[in-house]
Amino acid sequence: MQEKLQQLSIQAKTELNQIADAVALNNFKVKYLGKQGLLTEILRGMRDLPAEQRPVVGALVNQVRQEIEEQIASKQEQFDKIQLEKELAKNYIDITEPAKGHEKGALHPLSQVFELLIDSCVNMGFKVVEGPEVELDYYNFEALNIPKNHPSRDMQDTFFITDNILLRSQTSSVQARTMQVMKPPFKIISPGRVYRNDSDATHSPVFHQMEGLVVDENISMADLKAMLVELMRKTFGEQTQIRFRPSFFPFTEPSVEVDVTCPTCRGSGCRLCKGTGYMELLGAGIVNPKVLEECGIDSKKYRGFAFGFGADRVAMVKNSISDIRSMFRNDIRFLKQMK
Ligand code: PHE
């Protein structure tokens, strides 16, 4: 039996030397060490040995087994190494190759404009307040002195969700919400998205407004004008002039439309301002006392001024953008020009 074992050991070594790949190695393992393997078979034969010989032969079997296992492991290691080298060669990465570089855009013109407007207003003591885009008819219209069926509702093509719920058509909705919860005096601005059913080169169904509202004692048109001059100069440059034209909004009385000198020609008239020297930019006025009363503010004691304008329009005027839709296409070539 010992002889048999020694023979087996020699045979295994010779065979192992000729093995050249992992599959053959596995077959070899099964052939010698598997359940039906050669060594296992010898082990089974030990039953027939006299008891005193069993430990000796047993030790020998274990030794041969260990030898074979060690040899298999070292062969396996060799094969693994070869395999790894093969893969590394195949997936070679040249770390010295120059990098492709990232496409860099810029802050969206709208974000730039909002940053500028908000910064300027916060410096003048305004607080930023936000309101919901899905709004009640009440805040968008009724509380602002625009009852159901009022003809001025036609000024804004509103997206209705139900009879009483809509996509807000103006940030003025935040005026009413604010007046109901804040005690005067206060100064707030409300930047945000608004919606109207309108679409061409200068109108988008989704656009952006910034509303301003100041409520205090002794507020007059002079306060409104001074504040807007300051804001427009911070936005378009120190030489900027503004002018008021009489207008109408149900929630302000008197109401004005505010024009700003064209930042391109500085008032002398050019293609962009159609020769007028001015750009129409804001709606504004003294808050209608009816609105103050509706929102629970004593209109004998307090007065307010409000203004609202399109942030998209400011971005377009500032950057000479002629089509509002280009602001929402996310074309990186367009954004790159806005640096
Ligand atoms: N909400 C008005 C609009 O969208 C603008 C405005 C705001 C006018 C505040 C007066 C006061 O046209």
Walk me through this protein's architecture.
The protein is built from eleven helices and nine strands. It is α+β, with helices and mostly antiparallel strands and 339 residues long. It has two domains: 2-90, no CATH class; 109-336, Bira Bifunctional Protein, Domain 2 (BirA Bifunctional Protein, domain 2), CATH 3.30.930.10. Strands 1-4-5-9-8-7-6 form a seven-stranded mixed sheet, sandwiched between helices. A two-stranded antiparallel sheet has the order 2-3. Helix 2 (22-33) packs antiparallel against helix 4 (54-90) and helix 5 (109-123) packs across helix 10 (311-319). The mean pLDDT is 92. Phenylalanine is lined by residues 170, 172, 211, 249, 252, 283-285, 306-308.
CATH superfamily of the largest domain: Bira Bifunctional Protein, Domain 2
Outline the biggest β-sheet: 7 strands, mixed
Physical arrangement of strands within the biggest beta sheet:
1-4-5-9-8-7-6
**Residues in helices, as a percent range:** 40-55%
**Rg, Cα atoms, Å:** 42 Å
Distance between the termini: 89 Å
Average of per-residue pLDDT values: 92
Any low-confidence stretches, pLDDT <50, length ≥5?
Answer: none
Q: Counting H and I runs of at least 4 residues, what is the number of helices?
A: 11
The CATH class name of the largest domain reads: Alpha Beta
Shape: elongated
CATH topology of the largest domain: BirA Bifunctional Protein, domain 2
Order of helices and strands: HHHHHEEHEHEEHEEEHEHH
What share of the residues does DSSP label as strand, in percent?
15-25%
Topology of this structure?
Blueprint lengths: L1 H17 L3 H12 L4 H8 L8 H37 L18 H15 L3 E2 L5 E3 H4 L24 E3 L5 H9 L4 E10 L10 E11 L4 H16 L5 E8 L2 E10 L16 E10 L1 H6 L8 E8 H9 L12 H5 L3
Parallel strand pairs: 1-4
Antiparallel strand pairs: 2-3, 4-5, 5-9, 6-7, 7-8, 8-9
Helix pairs in contact: 1-4, 2-4, 5-10
The structure holds phenylalanine (PHE).
Phenylalanine (PHE) binds next to strand 8 and strand 9.
